């Protein structure tokens, strides 16, 4: 918040507001070691939101989390998607989540765009053999 030139009082208010947005206002006095992995991810999201970005990149934000903590992080991202006009780039293997919140899906393989379009088109009716194979393996759990 120093970068934004915000007065200290306003910065504290903004930080508390963002902690509330990610559901962690009650944890404001805790140290990172006292937070779960999901809570730590939500704090990271709150820190980014304080800066009022126009674009936010979520790069595999759930990959290191226990399965039971994934939902709380995805709920925060979903809330941001539905309550802001922010452009969000979501790198994920959470296909159902991507389908639910995305306006556009881009499937990249070996650094190249293989297929892109609305989630229903790309994930329900893939045109390329590579994406068809990926989705089949993904749906079969291997």
Automatic annotation (TrEMBL):
How does this protein lie in the membrane? Peripheral membrane protein
The main location class comes to membrane
One example GO MF annotation: ATP hydrolysis activity
Arranged from A to Z, the UniProt key words for this protein are:
ATP-binding, Cell membrane, Membrane, Nucleotide-binding, Transport
Show where the ABC transporter domain sits.
1-135
**PROSITE patterns per the record?**
ABC_TRANSPORTER_1 (PS00211), ABC_TRANSPORTER_2 (PS50893)
The entry sums up its family as follows:
Belongs to the ABC transporter superfamily.
Q: What is this protein called?
A: Amino acid ABC transporter ATP-binding protein
Source organism per entry reads Siminovitchia fortis
Ranked from the top, the taxonomy reads: Bacteria, Bacillati, Bacillota, Bacilli, Bacillales
